[in-house]
Structures are given as C-alpha cells and as structure tokens.
Amino acid sequence: MTKRNRSPHLMLAVIICAVSVIALVSAVIVMTAKEDAEPVTAEPIVSQPVESVEPLPEPEPEPEPEPSVVKFMAAGDNLIHDNFYKQAAARAGGNGFDFGMPYSFVEPLFADSDLSFVNQETIIAESIFPLSGYPLFNSPEAVGNRLVEMGFDVVSIANNHMFDMGEKGLIAALDFWQSKENLLTIGAWRKESDMQQPLLYEKNGITFGFVPITEHTNGIKLPKDTELRFIRSDEYDLMEQQVKLARENSDFVVVSIHWGTENSVNVNDNQLYLAQMFADWGVDLVLGHHSHTLQPMEWRTGKEGNKTLVVYSLGNLVSSMLNPQNMLGGVLDLEITMEPDQKPEITRAKMIPIVTQYDTTARREVRIYPFSDYTQELMDVHGVAANYPHFTIQYMQDIIDKNIPEEFLD
C-alpha cells in the first residue's frame, strides 16, 4: 500500500487549534484560582496633612513724617564798655581777656538752643585799631569768641555803632565774624551785588531768612566811594525787596531792627508803623533792639491774616550803663514747628527777663543774671541802687508786668 503526504495547510490548522485549546484551559484555571482565593481589599488612600503656610507679612506702613522743630533764642545788645573789657583783662592776669564769669549765669539759657541770635552793639576791629569805649567803641576779639563759645549762631552788626571805626573798622569786623565756622553774620554787605544773595541759616529742616536793618548810625557816614552796603529803616523799597528775597528762599523770615527811643521802656509811633508794615509783608518775627530797655512784645496781624511776633526791644544782654531801666533786659525763647508740607509756626513764645549787675558805683564785676535768680543781696550792692533808691526788684517787676503779656511769661 502506498503512503500519502500530509498537507502543510492542515498541519498549520492543527497547531492553531492546539494553541487555542491550551489558552482556553489556562484562562479557566486562572479564573478558578481567583474565585478560591481570599478577596483582596484595596488599602484606602489617606491624604497626608499639608503643613500650613504662613501668609506673607503685610508691608510695613510708611512712617508718618515727623514735624521739624527748632528752639530759637534771641538776646539783645551786647554792649561792651571799656570798664567791662578792662575787668576781663584783670581777670586774665595780663594774658589776654577772661570773659567767662560775666556770662556764666545766663549761659545755661542757651545750652539747648538750636539757633541763637545776638546783636553785637560794639564793633570788633581789634586787629587794626586800639580798643576803646563810649562813644566810639572798639571791642576785643575775645568777647566775640566768648559769644561763639556760648553757642550764638547769628550775629547782627547793624546798629548805630557799626561805623564807629569807619570803613576799615567795619571791614575788619566782617573779617573777624566771617572767619567763624557755622556762624551767620548779618548787617553789612561788602558790595551791592552781595545783597542779591539771601541771608539764610538752616536748622533741623527749617530755613531761616534774615533781614538786618538799623534806624541810624549816629550821624557817621562812610566814604562816598565805598562799596559797603547796609539797610536804613527809612529805605522802604529796599527793606521790602530784602524781605521778599528772604521770603522766596526760606521758610521763616526774621527782621532784626535797631530802632526806637534810647532809654525808653515805651514804643514810639515809628516802631508801630514799621511793625505793621513788616506784618503786611509776611515777616514771621521782628527782633528789636537799641533802646537798651525791655520794651513790649505782641502779635501783629498782617493783611493776609498772617501772625507776626514783634519784640520791640530785648534790651541789653550786658552793659555798664547807668540808668535803672537799662539794667533789665530779656532773652526770647521760641519753639518753631513746621509740620510736613506746612508753613512753620511759633508754637511757644516766652520772654526770660535778665538783669545786669555791677557792684558799687565803681561798676565792678559786671555780670548778668536771670531775673528769676536775682536776690535782694545782689540788689543791696548794685551800683545803680546807690544813686537811684527807687531801683528795686519790684521796680523791675513792674516793667515786666507792664510790657510783657502774661502769655509770654512762665
């Protein structure tokens, strides 16, 4: 019998069927195993706690701008008679001058001042002329150095004695004062073009503009060809121009004026007229001197409704004068405050009365005391009291009560 060959197609079909059967049997076995096994429970998904995030801090608010505050002190005439500087020379024992003691009792008044003003009544031209007293004064440089040591920042030389040593003396005085660091000298200009620059002093963010004026110069005139300039109180246009210059370049305008009637405790009509004029021009403070007495002080209202403080005369800081009324002077104590974006205002105004003391009619040991510290023991040896029995502590108190309103006294 003959053997027949198998078809390849048949063989392939058999193989495919076998694979299919094996796959089916495997699937059944797996499914059966799953049914017999323990059911698997899925673990629950537990969310992890999220750390709390601190919110960003709020930005710090901008600090409120602080107001600017200046403690301003002003003294009157520093009048240096020859016996005063001769006593200072004797204290120095032949080695210059010792002006320490005469001012020591009032020096603490200026200790915490931010800005201090004084009128230097006598010219300081020791570098070129001999020292001298009344009526043509020339004072030692040591007295100017003492004022600087006490803390004075602004010195006026616009007064009736500014030409006592002539043109050269005034130039020497300007040289002396302008050599001092951080000190503003007012009252005279070396040439007219200098008057176009405002006289400014800045302190604690407040700029002060000064206008120095004198009523007269005791009839003494400078040479016609001099370049030196000053302002007289009858030069209205020039005064207004200088006030405007100060107003445009500063926050607070101060007029320093040498005016009034000598030895009088009363204000005259010209002072009243000029005071109102200054108020109408927007001046903030008028510092008067020349009478050598403590004259009234008051507020004046300008035409724009502004307030101007007018001190008609601060009297003497020191002198060796002979009249009872010349012994009482004053130191002005102001607080000037400028709020942000506002104009400065005088937020405190006080007058501190002071007394010039010298012992016996020989006028020994000239010195100055605050009136509040003055005693009957000092009065008993005062040289003026020997010639004027009515010169008493009560006499000075009566002038204070008459001329200084209660709001300006502590």
Number of strands: 14
How much of the sequence lies in strands comes to: 15-25%
**Distance from first to last alpha carbon:** 155 Å
Summed over residues and divided by their number, the pLDDT gives a mean of: 91
Low-confidence stretches: 1-8, 12-19, 27-40
Number of helices: 10
Order of helix and strand elements from N to C terminus: HEHHEHEHEEEHEHEEEEEEEHHH
| Broad structural category | alpha/beta
Largest sheet: 8 strands, mixed
Shape: globular
Give a brief rundown of this model.
The chain is α/β, with parallel strands linked by helices and 410 residues long. The protein has helices at 8-36, 82-91, 100-104, 141-150, 166-178, 236-249, 269-280, 376-381, 383-387, 393-403; strands spanning 68-78, 115-120, 154-156, 184-186, 199-203, 206-214, 252-258, 285-289, 297-301, 307-311, 316-318, 328-338, 345-359, 364-370.
